Amino acid sequence: MMETMIVEIRAALEAAATDEALQELRVKYLGKKGLITGLMKNMRDLPQEERPAYGSKVNALRSEAEEAFAAKAEQMKAAALEQRLAAEKLDVTLPGKATPMGALHPLNQVYREVRDIFTGMGFEVVEGPEVEFDKYNFEMLNIPKDHPARDMQDTFYVSEDIVVRTHTSPVQVRTMLKHEPPIRVICPGRVYRTDDVDATHSPVFNQVEGLYIDKGVTFADLKGILGEFLRKLYGQSTVTKFRPGFFPFTEPSAEVDASCALCHGKGCPACKGAGMIEVLGCGMVHPRVIEACGLDPEVYSGFAFGLGLDRLTNIKYGITDIRLLYENDVRFLSQFV
Ligand code: DAH
């Protein structure tokens, strides 16, 4: 029986497929009430002289069995590892799944260019609220209540005294009220007007305002800085033209044309054959505005400008319908990746 037991154990171990089965066998043979332990207990029934030989045989069997169990446990561990490696196998030669790249909206791309040019010339970026006091949007910019100058901007009124800002110019006022000159800021943001939607009008659009206030700032500074800005944006060969204009908050005021970035002044559909496109409004900040903001117009002067970001973007990319900028159609937007 003792001779056959190790064979029996080996066969049973061979057949065991799970940790549980292995554990059961361990109890059956090596446990406190197991078969090999039982053999040892049988020793009592033997004559004294046979006991040592019998004892060493059982001990040998026990060691053999323990070795067999250890070998099996080792083998099962190796098999489990093998299986896990096979399951987690990674084929690095498989073609990847492409994740489509998003991109900045064209308005943001052009805004960043504008921002980088001005910050490169020492301007800081400030922002103001889109829901604004009438006082900041109009009155302190020299546009009194009931004055015909208000007709220039069709306004969404929230209440008597509050509007949805029609331009970014109120941020000029907020900045002058808060900061001592020298002031050099640009103010980007959404603005709103009660315009019906068509190819060139949208009730919401984007402007970038600029303001430079210090002692001794002149129209020459205005021309130099805005000219440089347009050459940086559209290329060194860009030609600019400053035409007299009117804005209540500047005096004198000008409207600025730049040679068309697409045809370089030759005339094309984008500039309607004119070769030049109006790109911004500007002027020397009106002394009344400087004074309303608590600064002395005898000491301080400066210039301001406002540019339409939508316009700049459309010119840059040859877009002929402003609605495309606001519909968020990915077929349109994915062209700007
Ligand atoms: N706020 C003007 C508009 O929306 C644009 C503008 C013109 C802003 C001249 C200025 C400026 O600061 O000096 O039409």
Give the radius of gyration.
Answer: 43 Å
- Beta fraction: 15-25%
Helix/strand-derived category reads: alpha+beta
**CATH architecture annotation name of the largest domain:** 2-Layer Sandwich
In whole angstroms, how far apart are the ends? 82 Å
Approximate shape? rod-shaped
Number of domains: 2
The helix content, as a percent range, equals 25-40%
This entry's quaternary arrangement is single chain
What does this structure look like?
It is a single chain. The protein has 337 residues and is an alpha+beta fold. The protein has two domains: 2-87; 106-336, BirA Bifunctional Protein, domain 2. Helices cover 40% and strands 20% of the residues. The protein contains eleven helices and ten strands. It has helices at 2-15, 19-30, 35-42, 51-87, 106-120, 134-137, 170-178, 219-234, 287-292, 309-317, 330-333; strands spanning 124-125, 131-133, 156-157, 162-164, 183-192, 204-214, 240-247, 250-259, 276-285, 301-308. Strands 1-5-6-10-9-8-7 form a seven-stranded mixed beta sheet, with helices on both faces. Strands 2-4-3 form a three-stranded antiparallel beta sheet. A hairpin with a 4-residue loop joins β3 (156-157) and β4 (162-164). The longest helix is centred in the N-terminal third of the chain and has 37 residues, at 51-87. It is rod-shaped. The mean pLDDT is 93.
